[in-house]
Amino acid sequence: MSNDEEHKSHKEMETGGPEALRNGEIEPYDLRAAEHDAVFGDIHEDGPNYRNVGWLGTAALMVKSQIGLGVLSLPAVFDTFGMIPGVILLLTVGIITTWSDYIVGVFKLRHREIYSVADAGGVMFGRIGNEFYGAAYIIFFIFVGASGLLSVSISLNALSHHAICTAIFVVVAAIMVFIPTSIRTLDRISWLAWVGSTSIIVAILTVTIAVGLQERPSSAPQEGVWQSDYKLVASPTFNDAISAMGSIVFAWAGTPTFFQISSEMRNPADFNKSLILCQSIITVIYVVVGVVVYYYCGSYVASPALGSAGPTVKRVAYGLALPGLLASAILLLHLPAKQVFVRALRGSKHLTSNTPIHWATWLGSTFATVLAAYLVASGIPVFGQLVSLIGALLGTLLSFQTMGFMWLHDNWSEGKQNPTMKWWLMVAWSIFVIVSGSFLMVAGTYGSIQNIVDSYKVSGGSAAWSCADNSNST
């Protein structure tokens, strides 16, 4: 193969084929010039290689950014809506967020200077958009990372029969997470994503199989004849329905992490291949787990469902899930720390060189992020309800409306000059994504605030830095 032919082959591989190049849809990405990156600048041997994640590693990171114990809230979601509407709504949100994920990859190839959703906000809305989306992203994932620290503490409590104060377990979780969070590049974290994804999936399937083999759920009446009271169609109240929708959206809310994951890909044109693998795995697991666990447990399903098969299986499942819980917290705190780090050093030689400033900035970013997550996890009395509020307010915004605006930004001006039926359909779809996301955001925020008020009326909230066993209710 001649040099010209090789160069052409590289271009086609990066952009999805000759047709995309011929139509001018995406500017070719030259692999031979990969030593200089639009985000990280010059990448050389004297520093970390931020462009070294393969497509399989990318798929693992995508899976791990989404799948966690949140999947075990889906059987309770099906109990709220009924099995048939529950599956339909789960798949509908999955389709919308998969499109959003796809738009992330397209937008990244067209605007290679983008590193995170904050940069995308800057492209669309200028400095205000950059600051707004940057703050929203960091706040959202600090809370999600804090939830990860609590999940680790729950696992440690379950495995040790609450051997020590829960507040100490949260400190232990933060320490366990900090060191691997400080690994600088995603290619070195991708193996953790593989291990974590596998451990979570095995734990989830263990519970799913166990509830199918048991006579009745552990919370069901233990005397007399018992039959699952699952419903095909239910009639939830508005608050119950919007809370359940929040759980579905949260299960798919890995979308904003895909900007940073794609930025560290060795070959960004492989993004769609990674996305298809990721979403296929996620969809199968979500549907199978939700349907099977709810079918066998009915209204007696626990949320999360680890406790549905009894205390022994619960401890086994938490033992299997612990590596995955750690991996979730590591990845979801690494990414906001990396955003702070890149913003601080972008355009300087310190970003990709092993200088004292590089190391001080990086370790400072990871330490501050983990510390913030720890303080949120331990110090906020209404943490669970607050996570729901943040998820409804920011998670929906970062996974729905933003991607609708991204498509319109890149296609409105050019398309309206010579509108086609495809263009009009995509405009309608983008507006639908924006409107539906806005409805879910407003309604979910209202429902979360109402739940916080109701919780205070009943118990006055829980204590900060509590020693109480947080594994009893899961």
From TrEMBL:
Q: Where is the composition biased (Basic and acidic residues)?
A: 1-14
Residue ranges, annotated region (Disordered): 1-23
Location(s) in or outside the cell: Membrane
Q: Any idea which UniProt keywords this protein has? A: Membrane, Transmembrane, Transmembrane helix
Where does the record place the Amino acid transporter transmembrane domain?
53-450
Q: Which family does it belong to?
A: Belongs to the amino acid/polyamine transporter 2 family.
- What is the name listed in the Swiss-Prot or TrEMBL entry for this protein? Amino acid transporter transmembrane domain-containing protein
Organism of origin is Clonostachys byssicola
